[in-house]
Write a structure and sequence with these properties.
The structure holds 2 protein chains of 2 kinds. By secondary structure, chain A is of the alpha+beta class. Helices cover 42% and strands 16% of the residues of chain A. Classes of the chains: A alpha+beta, B mainly alpha.
Chain lengths: 379, 507
């Protein structure tokens, strides 16, 4: 019994660690759906509970029989085996009854499926674009039309690597939240620029794969104000776990205010592509663009990542060579690599800035690139 | 040399079984690596790329390297003995279908050492992410080709053997259910594996030869890949599960000392499952944005599968009912299978419901669901089979006490790993992420501890098997009172190298 002793010690040890793990975690333990914030999410919750209860009853019934047999029909209590092995009536019964139960389940579900698919007559339409690894939002119809921004995770790298304590919304915080009005039907049109992503807000019961080259839509109507968080749910490469989605639902007049402010700030931020920039300004601006867009693959050191086939930019002859080379690469990407076309995501000024930054950092030294040059190369 | 050139079905069966145990260990180590990273939030041991590579390879190796070969191993050992045949129909082909596997496995493992490492695309290898991968992706594609060839050849062999080499009097409806389930599985393999080969070949040409099957910019469609993959992928679920059903259908009657209840309905239910499994594939894709009619069709079709599956479960329970039950290790694993596979089947029904699935798609709920089917289903059935037939194969009884320990430890740790993952999925944790928000920490810790325990418990299994091969109590010809197929009734223990050189006549 030496082995069994060892094993029981191991079990005791692991339950001890487990108890410590459970009591040590500061966060509330999430074990069920987030509180629904839309009728659809509530309906999903309800359907789930209906199915679960039906299942539970059947499960207990069937295994009640099994465990009763395990208890009462043991040889050790002297039970003699009977030899029956066929009964057409019960076979028919346990084929037909489950089929009827399934029909009972299918009926309400069908109604929900049809409702879920009805994206007609929305109050607001937002196009969502998945990028490796951030989300782009374009308000294309309804109040706020014309607003357009990117949304990137803001959780600092140091928190992820354990160099500083993790914040409350660890991995679930972004720089630009999607803001929508409460009680309005919002249609989300999802697509992607590179690989398949999936846009998901659990509390709103809305999930849609974002497929490159295709537009697929869903809708939601938030019943209450608040901030709702979700994550990308389709494996999209290295930073798949780090592209959250945050939706802030606000009252109608707050939404109008937000639209005004957002439009003003977007107008102010829009750079005149014909402006001549100072090299230092460009490098400073470029560093920010680099940290938001390029760093995941090419790394903060500029040394790249062999695992991702991302070449080193430091000491790279192509990077410091003729200006149109890097400009075209950033604008149009490199086919069949993770280097995507950034012409949709980045403005002329941002592209000029980031190239100037890469040409003048990590020991690189080359001429600066002005926004007008980028503008000229756009086709 | 004997092992390389052997054409004996028993030798080849042994090779398959050991191969699958080696792959099970490698895949298991990867799982431990994954769980180690997920023990705490934050990135500790693996960078996200390496993490994706591990999840991908864990899936591929477990599905194609461990679970599929283990049942082919059982088929090789048992089918000729159960139908009274001297060997498999194509003995040399049999050798080749095994020896393709180590090469495929080498390619899979080698991909880790290529520039860019193994592909980090998930075992489903969805386009267009596959286009971004390094040369490891190509090695994986070729490995899948080899594995597919091996499976197809093996299946042709099994079908031919069963249809042509049965002993006189062994009519189809007298065959042990294990043979039936394998016959049906082999047809599934022949139909499904070429489809997978096609999908990965299209991926290969998209990567290197300028085709755009899965690229919208060239007129293709990324979702097309998913349709093709799951047209293979869903039957694949039953390719893995059906032979396990077969093993369970041998074990439960043996230890209930009572014939299998509803033999004919079991055969029909298995066939029904196999046929329906070809028309449900898009239930893996409810969130791609299918038309509403598509969603409803695939939901109804998926729900229908619950009916024949239910029939099987009811039949197994009815077999136990009013039997004379004993609980040796094979029976324990069979009961564990029955209980937890049904649980996995039920969560499958939850996931069939479109709106609920949309909420849970690509979350840990799905991970929990399919591990209940693959591990508590297929793996538990495989363990039941090993303990059941080991005395016959080796001539020795295994250590019953240790066997029971192995069962209970595996059961407890398995549930520790995967039961809590239902909660993670409900609460919204996506699968395939190397790091997670803080509210998921507790369940992940429990799950990781379970994984370490489950890994250690399998060392005990290895010990038991080696101990049984080396020696131990002599096994009688029929150690299990209720067992009634030919290998127990007609053949001595341990079985000689050649059996049924003269076919028995079944009355």
């Amino acid at each position: 019994m030496k082995v069994s002793k060892l094993i029981s010690t191991l079990i005791a040890l692991s339950t001890g660690v487990m108890a410590a793990a459970v009591s040590g975690s500061a966060h509330a333990i999430a074990w069920y759906f987030q509180t629904p914030a839309s009728k659809m999410a509530a309906e999903i919750d309800w359907l789930h509970q209906v199915v679960m209860w039906i299942i539970l009853v059947i499960f207990v019934g069937v295994f009640g029989f099994m465990f009763y047999a395990c208890y009462a029909h043991r040889r050790s209590v002297g039970h003699k085996a009977e030899q029956f092995h066929e009964n057409t009536t019960v076979e028919i019964l346990w084929t037909v009854i489950p089929a009827l139960i399934l029909i009972v389940i299918a009926w309400p579900v069908t109604k929900t499926v049809i409702a879920q698919k009805d994206t007609s007559a929305p109050d607001l339409t937002i196009k969502v674009t998945g990028y490796q690894w951030k989300w782009g939002y374009d308000y294309i119809k309804g109040e706020g039309e014309g607003i357009s921004f990117l949304s990137t995770m803001t959780t600092p790298r140091d928190q992820i690597e354990g160099k500083e304590p993790k914040g409350e919304h660890y991995l679930l915080e972004v720089d630009n939240e999607v803001v929508v009005p409460v009680g309005k039907k919002v249609r989300i049109i999802a697509t992607a620029a590179d690989v398949i992503h999936a846009w998901w807000i659990p509390a709103l019961g809305a999930k849609q794969d974002a497929i490159p080259g295709f537009l697929r839509d869903i809708w939601f109507r938030a019943e209450q104000t608040g901030t709702f968080r979700g994550q990308c749910t389709e494996l999209c490469g290295k930073e798949h776990g780090f592209m959250p989605i945050v939706v802030r639902v606000v009252a109608a007049d707050d939404y109008s205010k937000w639209v005004d402010e957002k439009k003003k700030s977007l107008a102010a931020a829009a750079d005149d592509p014909n402006k001549q920039w100072d090299v230092k300004e460009l490098i400073a601006r470029g560093e920010k663009v680099y940290a938001g867009t390029c760093v995941a693959c090419h790394q903060a050191t500029g040394k790249g990542s062999p695992a991702l086939k991302a070449p080193a930019l430091a000491g790279n002859k192509f990077v410091v060579g003729a200006e149109q080379g890097p400009i075209d690469t950033v604008l149009n990407g490199r086919p069949n690599t993770a280097m995507q076309a950034f012409k949709q995501q980045l403005s002329d000024t941002e592209i000029a800035a980031v190239i100037t930054y890469a040409r003048n950092t990590w020991g690189n030294k080359a001429s600066d690139v002005q926004p007008a040059e980028v503008k000229a190369r756009r086709k | 040399m004997r092992w390389i050139t052997t054409t004996n079905h028993k030798d080849i069966g042994t090779l398959y079984l050991w191969f699958s145990f080696v792959m099970f260990s490698i895949g298991g180590l990867m799982a431990v690596g994954i769980r180690l990273e997920l023990f705490s939030p934050g990135l500790q041991f693996l960078d996200p790329d390496r993490f994706n590579q591990l999840t991908t390879m864990h899936g591929l190796i477990m599905v194609f390297g461990a679970i599929m070969p283990v049942f082919v191993g059982f088929a090789n050992w048992q089918i000729p003995m159960m139908i009274g045949a001297p060997d498999m129909a194509f003995a040399r082909l049999n050798n080749w279908s095994f020896w393709l596997l180590p090469f495929a496995a080498t390619l899979l493992v080698l991909s880790f050492f290529m520039p860019g490492g193994a592909p980090g695309v998930g075992w489903t290898m969805y386009a267009p992410l596959t286009v971004q991968m390094g040369i490891g992706m190509d090695l994986t594609i070729f490995a899948v080709h080899l594995l597919g060839m091996s499976s197809i050849l093996g299946s042709i062999n099994i079908i031919t053997t069963i249809l042509n080499m049965r002993a006189p009097g062994m009519t189809l409806m007298r065959m042990p259910l294990f043979v039936w389930t394998w016959l049906i599985t082999a047809y599934l393999l022949v139909a499904a594996m070429p489809v997978l080969a096609g999908a990965v070949t299209m991926t290969l040409t998209d990567r290197h030869f300028g085709t755009t099957f899965f690229n919208a910019a060239g007129g293709g469609d990324p979702v097309l890949y998913q349709h093709i993959f799951w047209f293979f992928g869903h039957p694949e679920v039953y390719i893995i599960a059906l032979p396990g059903f077969g093993v369970i259908s041998q074990v439960i009657p043996a230890f209930s000392r009572k014939p299998l209840f509803g033999y004919a309905s079991m055969v029909y239910a298995t066939s029904a499952i196999a046929i329906i499994s070809f028309i449900v594939w898009a239930h893996h894709m409810y969130t791609v944005g299918m038309p509403v009619t598509g969603q409803l069709f695939f939901m109804y079709a998926t729900m229908i599968i619950a009916v024949p599956t239910g029939v099987k479960v009811f039949n197994w329970v009815a077999t136990m009912w009013k039997g004379s039950l004993t609980f040796e290790t094979p029976m324990l694993f069979a009961c564990g299978f029955l209980f937890m596979f049904t649980l996995g089947g039920f969560t499958g029904l939850v996931l069939a419901v479109v709106p609920v699935d949309i909420q849970m798609h690509d979350t840990y709920y799905v991970v929990a669901h399919f591990h209940y089917v693959m591990v508590a289903g297929a793996l538990f059935a495989a363990f039941a089979g090993v303990y059941f037939w080991l005395p016959k194969w080796t001539g020795h009884m295994y250590n019953e006490t240790l066997g029971k320990w192995h069962f209970w430890l595996t059961l407890i740790f398995f549930n520790m790993i995967f039961f809590v993952q239902h909660f993670l999925g409900l609460a919204g944790m996506p699968r395939r992420i190397p790091d997670y928000p803080l509210m998921f920490e507790t369940w992940n810790k429990i799950s990781s501890l379970g994984a370490f325990g489950m890994g250690l418990a399998q060392l005990l299994f290895l010990y038991i098997v080696i101990q049984t091969i080396r020696g131990g109590e002599k096994a009688p010809q029929k150690p299990w009172e209720g067992a009634d197929s030919l290998e127990w009734t007609h053949l001595p223990t341990p079985v000689p190298y050649h059996t049924f050189e003269v076919q028995p006549v079944i009355k």
